[in-house]
Structure formats: structure tokens, C-alpha cells
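Comment thread on ticket #2218

A.B. wrote:
> Attaching the input chain for the structure job we discussed in standup.
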Amino acid sequence: MSLKHTHLNIGIIGGGPSAMFLYKRLVEHADPTVTITIYEKSDRLGAGMPYSASGANDEHITNVSGNEIPELVTTVSDWICTVPKDTLDKFKIDPERFNEYKVLPRLLFGQYLTEQFRLLMQQAKEKGIETIVNYNTAVADVVDYPDEDRIQVVTADGCKVYHHRVAICTGHFWPKKYEGKVEGYFDSPYPPSKLTFKADHEVAIRGSSLTAIDAIRTLSRYNGSFDKDADGKLTYEGYPDSQNFRMVMHSRNGLLPAMRFHLEDSHLGKNTVLSADEVKAERDANNGFLPLDYVFENNFKDGIKQNDPEFYARIKDMQMEEFVDLMMGMRERRDAFELLQAEYDEAERSIKKRESIYWKEMLGILSFAMNYPAKYFSAEDMLRVQKTLMPLISIVIAYVPQSSAGEMLALHSAGVLDIVAVGDDSTIEPAEGGGVTVTYTDEDGGQKTKHYATFVDCIGQPHLAFSDIPYKSLVDERVLTPAKLKFSDPNAGQDALAKNDSKVTKDSTGDYYLTVPGVAINDSFEAVDGYGAFNGRIYILAVPYIGGFNPDYSGLDFGEAASALVIKAMMR
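C.D. wrote:
> Ran it. Output below, let me know if you need it in another format.
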């Protein structure tokens, strides 16, 4: 029997940025009949993994500036004026010269987020909203009691607490496979403190994303130093006991991520997201599916048409695959570091003149806009996203800060950083004596095999499978269900199944489905159970577990926008 809640008790698992934006919405709702309990595995709120020692050292910086951050209690520039001088000196920040367009060291930004959470809790107290924070508390299980319309949170130390609503905001997670078992093998570069060692040998870095740059920034500082020459150009020199130190990025396409530039819309088109009515109309006209091509035309091409007519004239008749081939081809034909230098110069002009590079900005908007309705794509369209669109998006909207690019150029010039294209058929095998053996086909078609004593996997946050969900009761009781998308053409599904694609299944009605990473959720991020019904009590905002229905869910903007949908459903 369902209970009528005169007092709503809400649990938030995790206390990072996503939890903070959800908490902010609850405080703004200003309902004193709500009690909020936060379970945070560390000793502080707000920072999460990326902006704490779990994900950053002093050398790591954000790829967003103050003007790109969703509204909180105080602006970054106002907060900077309150930071103690010794802290600012540590990070070489002059408050007189700081402005909203500058990026921050990640650890300093973490301090800002922690302070914002504190101020939000102060607001909650003033409004009569009770907040209970359990620090240093890991959650071992979540148990749903539908007949009682409540959920039980079970902590690692055995404590059991009941809530009417629970939001899972546990943030980033990198599972360990070989780390700790194979010497010199790191499943991720986090926490970066584990990479603070001397390496008088070649280091293999898998990937070339922002995650790889994190590893590069740390390893380079412990094996050499940066300086500026007489012309002010950044240089790098290895330490005497690291003369053989060298880092080699192994990338499928041999490409480096693109640079930060000036964004005309610093919040990447939150107003361009397709409305529920528009999505419904398109689905009604397309057998329940939202066509990817419709999103590409409306959330990408239309913006180009308005802002860069000359570029639009070049691409207006292109399908998505043709556009991606054009853009990737332009990058692949150039040396990766020569292109990085060219984009460094282009970005510098963009930032100085405060003029956007519109096609890149619109690609960021497309990435943001397609996340919400991606669950309505056909399986065929999702495969197109995974295979064709995401590789380009992941490169272009990485927004590498200029200081990171400058260091990479200096390292390459010093002969200690390079990149090789390894293709889709490359293999990485842990070696018996430590490290890994990498086998790949080079650009000339020859097979190469090489051993590295140190290997760092830097492919970024993986989209985790349904089997990786840590809350056993939710899985066993079918409260959660694997995310899957239906094939619009049964023949395409049949062909995929015939090729022994383990991700493709056929149901009893003869329909074919593609299993995608993580769990099924609805538009409000509510869990969808094994019978297709949304739960109403459990909301999932944890990045690694919703990647199937949200292929590019990341960043503060997405967390802030998603929280609006969650709070509307929670208070329904």
C-alpha cells in the first residue's frame, strides 16, 4: 500500500557536482517538509573526483572558465577575491588580473565547489530544510520497497536508512583490472599521485584524450622541467636520471584533441534542446523513433546556417557521415602536432578577439542536445553515433586549455612525447615480468610489436556495463534493467545477430534489440524496471551507468540541466 508522504525524505548518494546541482534545486524548491540526506565517501562535498586529490594534482587545470559554469551562489571571480593569498600564490593567481574567461587549477576549482555547497547548505538551514551529511560513508546496497513506496540505503558499515526518493550521483569510476597485479600497469591515471615517479624508459599511454593529458602533465613534471627560452617559448628538459624518459600515446586514429576557443554561447545551447512536444511529433511520424538525421539538421546545421553562412554552404547537402569524413580527413592528413600548433594559434586569435569557431561550437551544442533524446534513437542510429559521430565529438569538444597544449608542444619538440595511430585491431597484453606488450598495424600496413615497462590506460571514463552496477539488490529484483534500443529495420537486426554480435538480441515477438551500456532510464532519469515501468523512487545521474542512453553525458552544464528534470519528477 502506497504511503502519502507528509514529510519527504530524499537520499543523495554521492556529494560531487551532480549532487550539488540537485541539492541546489531542492533548496530553491524551498519546502521545509523535505529532509535531505547526503552520503559522501570522502570528507568533503562539491569537488567530486575531478576536482579533488582523487582526480587532480596541483598541475591539473579545468577545461571550463568561470563564464561557462552554471549559476551557483557566488561567481568564480567574486570567490577568488575571498581566497587566502598563500593559496592564490601557490597556484600563481593574481586576483587583480583574474576574470571569468580564465580557467582554474582543478584543485582550486574544487575548493570553490566545496564552498558553494557550504553556502547552499546555509541557505537550506535558513529556509528550514533539514540536511544530514554522512561523510566518509560508502553505500554498499540500495533496496527498493515498492509496496511501502520507499527505498533503503545500506552503507558499507551496515547502517540502514529509509528514504522516499534516492538519487544516485556517484560520479566517475574506473574499475581496476590489472593494476596492483601487474607491475607498471595502470588501469587509469587516477588518482594522479600514483604517477609521481621517475621513469627512465618509454611509457605507453593508451588514448589521447583529456585523460591522457592529465597523465602527461604529471609524468612530465616528475621526469623533467619546463622553462621559457629567450623568446618566451616554452621548453622542456629531462632530468639527468630520466634521460630515456619518453611518452608515446597510442590512439586509434592518431589524432590529438582540439583546443579551447571562445564560445559565443558559453553554456552550449541549453535552449536548443528539442522540446518534449517536438520529440513526440517526430517519433509519431517515425514509428516511435527520433531520427538522428533530424537532430543533426536541427541542432547542428541550422546553427551553422545562422552563424557561418560560408561554412554552411560547404556542408549544407552533406549527410552526417559525409561531414564527419570531411572533418576527420582534414585532421588525419596533417601531422598531429603540426595541427595542434595551428589550432593553438587559431584558438589564441579566437579568445583574443572573442570570436567563436562556429562549427566547433555547434558540434558541442549537438553533443549536448542529442543526449536527452538519444534513448529514442533506433539501434541503427545509435550504432552510427557510436561508430561515426562520437569519435569526432570526443576530439573537437575536448576543449584542451592552451597551457596544456603549450606543454604538449614543448614535450614533442624535446623528443619526449609522440603519438602513433594503432587502428581498431591493436591489442594490449599484460607482460609476465611487468608492463605490457602492444601489437598494432602501422600506417604502412606492417605489424608492430613493442614492450613497454610502464602502461597507463587513458581512454577516459568508460561506459560501464549493466553487470558493473554495484547495488546488487536493484539488479536481482529487476528494479534496474539493461539499456537497449530497438532496430527500426528487422533485417538490420537479423544481420547483426547473424554476425554473432553479442549485443544484439531477439525477443519473443520477433523484434531485434541492441544492448547499450548501463541502465535504462526515462527522460527524468528515473530507473526503468524489467517490465518497462519507471520507478518513481530511484533516479540515476551517475555518469558511468547511463552512457547507453546518454552517449556524451558529462560536464557541469549537463548535470545542472539534468537536475531540473529530476527535481520536477521527484516533487511530482
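A.B. wrote:
> Thanks. Noting for the ticket: The longest helix spans residues 106-126.
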